[in-house]
Amino acid sequence: MSAPSFSPGIILSVRPLRESDYIAVILTQDLGKIEAIARNARKSTRRFSGGLDILDSGLFELQKPLSGKTLYTLRSLEHKNLWKRLTSSLNLLSSALLIAEISERVCGLDDPNSSGVYCVLLETLICLDSLDKQSRISPVLVVALKQLLRHSGFSTQNTGAVSSSVSTTQDSAIADSPVHELRELLDYVEHCLEKPLKTRSNLQFPATS
């Protein structure tokens, strides 16, 4: 058995398995999107701080799957981000879950070229978690969606110029992005994915200021 490796990552989805295990879909910086089993994670307070949930991020200790298998073993999660502001606001959380869903759907399993999507998702979560005004959510999502489309190989020709960084949403020029641009981008994303986004219906559209 190979030695465990460590990679920064973000949990995109998680489901229970048997009485105490989880199966997690993790977007990692080094391995791309992977599926991993976390044994006894629902009971372990040492390795997983009491469990695993979507948007949990930090440093994942992973055991590579055996030959012919695709399921990694998740041994621990260290330096876990708490996302205090993000998880205390329904609209911020809905926005984060939307970007996580899109990130999961545009990445194939075990594609190491997904590191760009990981960086966009992480930067978006950090930005959302630091927002002091709900009115800035829409501009953050606009930039994040354009970034995800670019990294996923979809054309952004009809969706406006792609900003170089999600963090630029702090600039006044980005903050003036209209809400209708976000709606159009979400329509375009659903068109590209050929399937509605499950988390879109939970999203509210506060006006920008």
> What is the oligomeric state here?
single chain
Terminal-residue CA separation: 56 Å
List segments where confidence is low: pLDDT < 50 over at least 5 consecutive residues. 160-164, 169-176
Fraction of residues in helices?
25-40%
Q: Please provide the count of β strands.
A: 5
Question: Which radius of gyration do the C-alpha atoms yield?
Answer: 17 Å
Major sheet size, sense and barrel closure: 5 strands, mixed, barrel
Q: Order of strands in the sheet with the most strands?
A: 1-2-3-5-4
Number of helices: 6
Alpha-beta content class: alpha+beta
Number of domains: 2
* Series of H and E elements: EEEEEHHHHHH
User: For the residues shown, what is the average pLDDT?
Assistant: 84
Globular, elongated, flat, extended or rod-shaped: what is the shape?
globular
Strand content: 15-25%
Structural features, described:
There is one protein chain. With 209 residues, the chain is α+β, with helices and mostly antiparallel strands. It folds into two domains: 5-78, OB fold (Dihydrolipoamide Acetyltransferase, E2P), CATH 2.40.50.140; 84-202, no CATH class. It has six helices and five strands; from the N terminus they run βββββαααααα. The longest helix is centred in the middle third of the chain and has 17 residues, at 90-106. Residues 160-164 and 169-176 have low confidence and may be disordered.
